[in-house]
Amino acid sequence: MSDAPAQNLSTPIEPDDSYTALANEIVDIFYKIYGTHAGFRVNHAKGIVAQGSFVASSEAATLSRAALFDGSSIPFTVRFSNDGGFPAIPDGAPGNIKGMAIKFHMHDGSEVDIPMLAVKTFPMPTGEGFRDLLMAISNSPDSAAKPTALDEFAASNPTVPASFNTAGTPDSFAHEEYRGLNAFIFVNKAGHRQAVRYITTPEKIVYLDADEAARKPLDFLIDDLPQRVAKEPVVFHLRAQIAESGDQTKDPSQSWPDDRRVVDLGVLTVSKVLVDSHAVQKNLLFLPTNLTDGIELSDDRMPLIRSAVYGVAFARRSD
User: Fold this and answer.
1) How many CB atoms within 10 Å of residue 62?
2) Tens digits of per-residue pLDDT, 49-80?
3) What would the DSSP string read from start to end of 82-112?
4) What is the Cα–Cα distance from 196 to 9, expressed in whole angstroms?
5) DSSP letter at 157?
């Protein structure tokens, strides 16, 4: 591990009332786009919940002093999902971004959450920009004349197609790679600080082409996972891409160079899919700000904004 800090290991921004205001705006627009579906998430409404255990690698402990990386078996709950607020969206819908959110149940009773998406970058650099993207989507129904508001927004914000164009349709949630997108700071026992981004990699990656995906049943990914896990556990590797000096950490719409070192943090073994998944996921809340000693926020504002959005959306669906 390099002791040299990345360029932006500054004190993370603290949340204030502006985060809640922005979160409410974003949730309002999600409802405008997708309507209200009682008991379902306003985004990533369709999903399935499983459980498993994580065992960290020895190298993980050199990067971070977090108890998550102490090498013991740590149980987790994981939710795989489709993008969007429609509970009945086809699993093979074109360009639909898959999600994987992990909640680690620490031995002291606390939780550590890692929400991830199956794209290489976030579509906008800021929460305000993401709000504006959602507004463009809401103003671009199927009946809208071309170019739509979304077409014009994407043309003037190239980070949008750069993100969306990296989404594929896997043949299984177990065969997709998911990324944390936001930078976090690992702190080891000696106090060395290192910026990282999470990547969760399966044993193999398998994508369907557009014709194959269109021929699949509505719920083929949801139906596949319990059948697959019943035969044998599904394995992922939790990894960390390591920033080098000069790599910015505040903009999730910009990737780090492909030659940056990637460290295997440990093995995630999914061993059980919950039969009452639909009921369980109503009460699940994954917050990227649920951290632990040895893992800190960077100067990226997006985890704070995402946590505010998820909290507002959770409260509304619980009303």
Assistant:
1) 17
2) 999 999 999 999 999 999 999 999 999 999 99
3) -SSS-TT--TT-TTPPPEEEEEEE-TTS-EE
4) 11
5) -
CA–CA dist 34, 185 (Å, integer): 35
The answer to whether 72 and 108 are in contact (CB under 8 A) is: no
Q: Does residue 314 form part of some domain?
A: yes
Residue positions annotated with a catalytic role:
44
pTM of the model: 0.93
Question: 167 is written with which tokens?
Answer: 């989404």
- What confidence tens digit (pLDDT) does each residue in 136-158 have? 999 999 899 999 999 999 999 99
What is the 8-class DSSP label of residue 306? H
On whether residue 12 sits in a domain, the answer given is no
Residue type, 207: Y
Residue 278 belongs to what domain range?
Answer: 17-318
CATH number at residue 202: 2.40.180.10
DSSP H or E segment with residue 272: strand 262-273
Domain count, the chain: 1
Is position 112 within any domain? yes
Tokens at 188, concatenated: 């080891």
Question: Which residues neighbour 200 within 8 Å (Cβ) at sequence distance 6 or greater?
Answer: 100, 102, 114, 116, 177, 178, 179, 236, 237, 238, 239, 268
CB-based burial, 199-235: b 16+ in 10 Å, e otherwise = bbbbeeeeebeeeebeebeebbbbebbeebbeeeebe
